[in-house]
Every structure is written in structure tokens, then in C-alpha cells.
Design brief:
The complex is a heterodimer of chains A (412) and B (340). Chain A has 15 helices and 14 strands. By secondary structure, chain A is α/β, with parallel strands linked by helices. Chain A has a 7-stranded mixed sheet, with helices on both faces. In chain A, strands 2-1-3-4-5 form a 5-stranded parallel sheet, with helices on both faces. Chain A has a two-stranded antiparallel ribbon with strand order 11-12. By secondary structure, chain B is mainly α. In chain B, helix 12 runs parallel beside helix 15 and helix 13 runs antiparallel to helix 14. Classes of the chains: A alpha/beta (412), B mainly alpha (340).
């Protein structure tokens, strides 16, 4: 009896040894993920004006940035950091520079490795300065003021083009389009907002650039932002009767301006915008298709020959959003930072700044080529020219990215 | 311990805490929080002199803020003047604009809502002027002050390398404003100003020169608010017509003393502390419970503001005074009972 019992029992020593072996085996083969702690996520600060007068654009930017975070994490996170996920730390600048700075301070406390934002130039100028004090790399997604990258801040990078480049390219392409069509337009009138660095800076550069190019710049009509009545401005355009109207303003004003032109039956030979607020926006096209027809724009735009652009577009539209430039510029700003972290193999801010400065990232769908930063500005960044034709926004210039031929001048 | 003694100890402790705050608080965010709180308290104090003590409600205090800010920015960026020197010109500019608006308004007896509207109109006119005068103000593009990257020149350039420098700068300004208002409250000028607020005709009947008193108040208020503009420029290094003369700064300057307690020395400081604290609480709470719901915090914040305005007509200072008076009356009643 005693013997039998002894045989069936496991001794303490055998049990401990067996259990130990089983634990090691389970750890190595069975549940490696349980035993190895998941890597700490990489904190990424994302600041946009999601409330206040820039709310609409800011919300689009935030959506694009969050889409990029989701894509990066779905793709395995930051591989060089053992697949660490990117964790978005959101900030709302409330359309004010000082709140943007407060958000930078908050994100610094949360230990973000980098910051992406802040859509508007005025806010971005303040937040990049605040981030510089803490050595936080800051990638500007949309802000086009050239002052952003002209202050010698080593932490500041901009993936997209700035004012100077956009106006230069916009002017050159207008001349080219006009010449190709047999110079049907000679006189033009600029309508611009003058309440923010965007419109006033643009008007000055356009007046000079287009005047130097031989156009008769009849006038540059300024209006504040917000502005809820364009009747007087359109009446002035009607009286001046220019061949070409060049609007430069934010989305709401642009839509109202285009609708007022349509209502008052003012039909210039062409409407050519440079960074036109609504001129290359699907929302405008969907809501006011007749007012939008044939409007041309020189703006941030994706490479229409890259299939990835359409994957992101499908994801955006699936979420019930419009695929606007704010979405894909913020999307790329986040992806650019992720690439830098990947190459830096570190969450360290200084290492990420170095990685951004030496970046040659080509995994994007913008018409820029591999990135090359000089003083924080991506040298290959350029705008594309688009035209609203039917129910689509087509690229009309430059030739290598064109999906349609420009209709210029537009049909009477 | 008497009530006065209790308050004195309270303010002494608070003052000592304010001085040592940068050593206790290592968080840059909270230092920035204190900076913005003190900045808004300072702006509110400027409004309080005229609106709270003088009863002259201004809806366009941004006109003084923007003038000070623009003078500070222009003299530095275009003429290369030292910011410590330009500061005095900025204040003088604020006084000049205040004297101009005050003379036009008070000379023709504008009061109440008429005065409020005229200040609003002036702020808007200055915004349009700043936008149009591109040669001087750079128009809508705004003026950007060159960033000083030499830590040794941070004090000379009034661009402090850390938040601590800005904290002490605005703390000194706020304490000075408290002292000025405290002294004013106890001066003949302060008494005359309050008399004008309560009944201008009666004040004039007893020999108060209401026009001169109101001019003094608006000039003092203009100088103080212009100094607020100087601080903003030095902290954020940019200025454009919307920041300078837009309605935001006018509203912020008047909301703070209204919430805290108009016509009281500490009302603006209390109001600013309350508003900033509530702003952060609502922001953090909404982010904690409903992440990525932009604007929801502002709705809660707005509701709290409305409730405070509805139930505390004398502001937070009125609430504290009411509580204090209630306790004192309670103690007096108890003593009476004991004697009886």
C-alpha cells in the first residue's frame, strides 16, 4: 500500500524541477509576448486649432494626423524600437498662439518625442519657438509663412512648400498655361483676405510676381476674415471687367465669393487661385458644383499617379470626411516624424532632430521626391495645379503629374 | 486672531509662495499656467480701474493693449531699440490713445452703453488701421520679433530663456498693479472715482471734477493695459492686427474682473485664477472621459461662467466677503446671546 502510494506520487524535488522546466519552456515557446513586456509607446504631440475660427481646417488636420498614427501602428509601429506603438497626445490651440504655446508646455511635461502642427502660420511660429526651448523636434504640417523656417531654429522642419515657392511656381505655371492657350488673358484682379499673414503675404507676392510677368494687375481688393458679404467686391470686379480673377482667402470666404460671382453672373475668362481656400476642396465641389466648375488652383496636392494617395482617400471618405489638403499634409507630417524615429532608433529628441535633418524619406505620395532639408525646409516640396472639371479635381500641371488638360479660358 | 490679522497672514503666505513658486514647481506647464493667469489678472486690473472703480464700461480695451504691443514690436524690429527702452514709449502710447478716446468721449458726456460702444468702435478702427498701414505694421502678415538665441543677452533683450524669467516679470507687474490699485482705492482720487461711478451728477455737485477724474482713470488704465501688450510681445514675439485689436483681448480683460469682483483690489487676480483653473479642469476632464471631442470643454466652461455670473453678481470677492460677514455676524449674535 505504502509502496503503491509512493510510485504514484511526485516528489517535491521532481515537481519543482518539472514546474521550472515547464515555466521556461512556456516562456520561450508558448507566451513570449506575455513574458516580454510590450515596448513603451512613443509619445507624439499633435497640436491643431480644433476650436475657434480655424476649427474646420484644424479638425481636418487632426483627422489626417490620427489616420497616419493608426496606419503606423497597424503596420507594426516603430520597428527599430521593438515595434513600439505611436501614442498621439492631442492639443487644441483654440486658434490662438498663446494657447498653442501652453499646449507645447503641456506636451513637454508628457514627454513627447516630437510635435506635429499647427496648421496656421501665426500659431506655428509661436509653437516652434516654445518647442525649441525644450529641444522638441517640431514638424509644421501646413503653415506656409516663410518666416517659420527662417529663424535658425534647429528643431523646426516643414515638409510642404512655403509662400515664396508656391507663389513663384503659381505665377510661372499661370504664364505657361496662358501662353499655351494663345494668351487669352492679359488683365487680372486679385481678391485677398488681409486679416492674417496668409492673405496679406500672398497678395504682395502675387501683385509683384504677376506684374513682373507682364500681366496688367488692375487692382488688389482686400477683405477681412471673417467676411460675410462679397457683393461690393464683386460689383467692383464687374466694373473693372478683368480677364482673370485671382482669389486668395480662407475656405468660407472663398465659397461665398465664388457663389456671389455666380449669382451676379460675373464670368471672367478664368479664376486662378494660389492657395485658394476652397478652390481644390471636394466639399466645395460637392456642395456647389456649378460655382466650382473650371476654377483653377495652385495648392498642396498629392501625386495622382501614386496608388497610396487613393488608399488614404478611401479611408478618409469612409470616415465621412472630405479628402482635403489639410488631411494629407498632416498625414505626411506624422509619417515623416515616424520615419525619423525609425532611423534614429531612439525616442531621444536630439537624435530625432538629427534624423530629420538628414532625412531622405521617399515613402510618401506627395510630388516632392525624397526629402532633403535645408534650414528646416524640404527642398523638393512643390504645389500642383488643379482644376475642377465635372465632379473631379484634376491635376493640370506640371505635365508629369497631369491627369487632364487645362480648360483655359473657360467656356462662355 | 482678528479678521484683519488673518487676512494679512493669508496674503503674506500667498506672497511668499508666489516668490518661491519656480523653486517648488518644476513643471514648465504649470509655470506657464501661472504666467498666463498673472498676465490676464494684469490686463483685468487695467480694465478694473476704469470699469470697476470708475463705472466706465469699456468693450474695447484691446485698443490700449494693441497700441502698447505694436509700439514695442515696431520700435524693436524696425529701429532696433532696446526693449527696456521701448517699454516706456509703449506705455506712453497707451496713455496718448487713452487720452484721445477719453477726451472725445467724456468731453461730450458719453456714458454707459454709449461709452462701451465707442471703445468697441475705436478698437475696430485701430484693427483696420493696423491692417491697412502695411508699411508700418506689416499689415495682416504681422511683426515677428527676432528670436534671441544668446542666453547671456536674455535679460537685456527681455527674452528669458526659461519660463521663470517671464514668471517673475509678470509677477512684478501684477504686484505693482495691485499696489497701484490698493493705493488708488485709499487716495482722494480713488474716492472721487468711486463717487463718479455711483452718481456723477451728485459727485459734481459736491465739487468733484468728473471729467478730470475720468480722464485720470482712463489714462492710468491705458498705461497699464499697454504694458500688458508689451509683455505679450516679449513672451510670444509676434503681433498682428487680430491679436492686437481683435475682440479676444477686450473680452478677456473685462470678464476677469467681472468674475472676480469689479471695483475690488483682488477681484481680477481671483477671477483670472478661477477662469484658468476652470479652463484646465474642464479641458482635462473632457479629455479623460471623452477623448478627442474638441470644443466640449469650452461648452462646460461656458456653462460654469454663466452660472457664476447668474448667482454671484458681486463676483468671487463678493462671495468671500458674504461668507466672512456671515461668520462675523454669527459670532456677534452668539456673544450677544451669552451676555444676555
Amino acid at each position: 500500500m505504502t509502496k503503491k502510494t509512493r510510485k504514484s506520487q511526485i516528489s517535491r524535488r521532481t515537481f519543482v524541477a518539472g514546474a521550472g522546466t515547464a515555466a521556461v519552456a512556456t516562456g520561450v515557446i508558448g507566451f513570449p509576448a506575455v513574458l516580454r513586456a510590450a515596448p513603451q509607446p512613443v509619445n507624439l504631440g499633435i497640436i491643431h486649432p480644433v476650436t475657434g475660427f480655424l476649427q474646420q481646417a484644424g479638425a481636418q488636420c487632426r483627422f489626417g494626423a490620427m489616420l497616419a498614427v493608426a496606419d503606423i501602428n497597424a503596420d507594426g509601429g516603430i520597428r527599430s524600437l521593438d515595434g513600439a506603438k505611436v501614442r498621439a497626445q492631442l492639443g487644441d490651440a483654440q486658434s490662438k498662439a498663446e494657447i498653442g504655446v501652453a499646449e507645447v508646455e503641456k506636451l513637454n511635461e508628457r514627454g513627447v518625442s516630437a510635435i506635429v502642427g499647427c496648421f496656421a502660420s501665426g500659431i506655428s511660429i509661436a509653437t516652434t519657438q516654445a518647442a525649441a526651448k525644450h529641444g522638441i523636434p517640431h514638424v509644421v504640417d501646413v503653415g506656409v509663412s516663410d518666416k517659420i523656417v527662417q529663424r535658425g531654429l534647429k528643431n523646426t522642419f516643414r515638409f510642404g512648400p512655403g509662400f515664396g515657392k508656391i507663389v513663384k511656381v503659381g505665377t510661372e505655371r499661370l504664364i505657361e498655361i496662358n501662353e499655351k492657350a494663345g494668351k487669352p488673358t492679359k488683365s487680372l484682379l486679385i481678391v485677398h483676405e488681409n486679416s492674417t499673414p496668409f492673405g496679406s503675404g500672398m497678395a504682395k507676392l502675387l501683385t509683384k510676381g504677376l506684374g513682373d510677368a507682364g500681366f496688367d494687375v488692375m487692382d488688389a481688393l482686400a477683405h477681412p476674415t471673417p467676411n460675410r458679404d462679397f457683393n461690393n467686391i464683386v460689383l467692383k470686379i464687374k466694373a473693372a471687367n478683368p480677364d482673370l480673377v485671382v482669389p486668395s482667402m480662407y475656405y468660407n470666404e472663398y465659397v461665398l465669393f465664388a457663389r456671389t460671382l455666380e449669382r451676379q453672373k460675373v464670368k471672367p475668362k478664368a479664376i486662378y487661385s494660389v492657395l485658394g481656400g476652397a478652390a481644390s476642396q471636394y466639399k466645395f465641389l460637392k456642395e456647389f458644383p456649378t460655382a466650382a466648375q473650371y476654377i483653377m488652383d495652385c495648392n498642396h496636392w498629392y501625386n495622382p499617379k501614386n496608388s497610396d494617395a487613393f488608399r488614404v482617400r478611401a479611408a478618409t471618405e469612409k470616415a465621412g470626411k472630405f479628402y482635403s489638403y489639410e488631411v494629407f499634409t498632416a498625414y505626411h507630417a506624422v509619417k515623416l516624424v515616424a520615419d525619423a524615429i525609425e532611423r534614429a532608433k531612439s525616442r531621444d529628441r536630439a537624435a530625432i532632430i538629427d534624423a530629420l535633418a538628414s532625412s531622405t524619406w521617399a515613402g510618401h505620395f506627395m510630388p516632392y521626391g525624397p526629402t532633403k532639408f535645408v534650414n528646416g525646409q524640404n527642398q523638393g516640396a512643390q504645389p500642383l495645379n488643379t482644376q475642377i472639371l465635372g465632379d473631379e479635381i484634376e491635376v493640370i500641371a506640371p505635365e508629369e503629374y497631369a491627369t487632364a488638360k487645362a480648360v483655359f479660358p473657360r467656356p462662355a | 486672531m482678528t479678521g484683519t490679522m488673518g487676512w494679512r497672514i493669508f496674503w503674506l503666505v500667498l506672497g511668499a509662495l508666489a516668490i518661491v513658486a519656480p523653486w517648488i514647481i518644476t513643471s514648465g506647464f504649470w509655470i506657464n499656467f501661472l504666467i498666463l493667469t498673472l498676465f490676464l489678472a494684469f490686463l483685468g486690473q487695467g480694465w478694473n480701474i476704469m470699469g470697476g472703480y470708475g463705472g466706465q464700461f469699456s468693450f474695447g480695451h484691446a485698443v490700449f493693449f494693441g497700441t502698447g504691443a505694436y509700439i514695442q514690436a515696431i520700435l524693436q524690429s524696425k529701429f532696433g531699440w532696446n526693449p527696456w527702452l521701448t517699454l516706456w514709449f509703449a506705455m506712453a502710447g497707451g496713455v496718448l490713445v487713452a487720452a484721445f478716446i477719453g477726451y472725445l468721449s467724456f468731453r461730450y458726456g458719453l456714458r454707459g452703453s454709449y461709452f462701451a460702444l465707442i471703445t468697441l468702435a475705436f478698437a475696430e478702427a485701430f484693427r483696420v488701421l493696423a491692417t491697412a498701414a502695411e508699411g508700418v505694421t506689416e499689415g495682416g502678415k504681422g511683426i515677428l520679433i527676432a528670436l534671441n538665441q544668446d542666453p547671456e543677452r536674455s535679460f537685456a533683450m527681455m527674452q528669458f530663456a526659461t519660463g521663470t524669467g517671464y514668471y517673475y516679470f509678470i509677477l512684478i507687474l501684477t504686484v505693482l498693479s495691485l499696489v497701484v490699485v490698493w493705493a488708488m482705492e485709499r487716495s482722494r482720487f480713488g474716492a472721487q472715482l468711486v463717487a463718479v461711478r455711483e452718481n456723477e451728477d451728485a459727485a459734481e455737485a459736491i465739487g468733484v471734477n468728473a471729467f478730470r477724474v475720468k480722464m485720470g482713470a482712463i489714462c492710468l488704465s491705458g498705461a497699464m493695459t499697454a504694458l500688458g501688450g508689451v509683455f505679450y510681445v516679449q513672451k510670444f514675439l509676434l503681433m498682428d492686427p487680430n491679436i492686437a485689436y481683435g475682440p479676444t483681448k477686450s473680452v478677456e480683460a473685462l470678464v476677469v474682473p467681472i468674475i472676480g469682483g469689479m471695483g475690488t483690489v483682488f477681484g481680477p487676480l481671483l477671477g483670472s485664477a478661477f477662469l484658468h483653473t476652470m479652463g484646465e479642469i474642464t479641458k482635462e476632464a473632457t479629455q479623460f472621459f471623452w477623448q478627442d471631442r474638441p470644443g466640449l470643454d469650452l461648452i462646460f466652461y461656458g456653462v460654469i461662467l454663466v452660472l457664476v455670473l447668474a448667482f454671484l453678481p458681486n463676483g468671487l470677492v463678493g462671495l468671500i466677503k458674504g461668507q466672512w460677514r456671515g461668520r462675523r455676524q454669527g459670532r456677534a449674535a452668539e456673544r450677544k446671546k451669552a451676555v444676555a
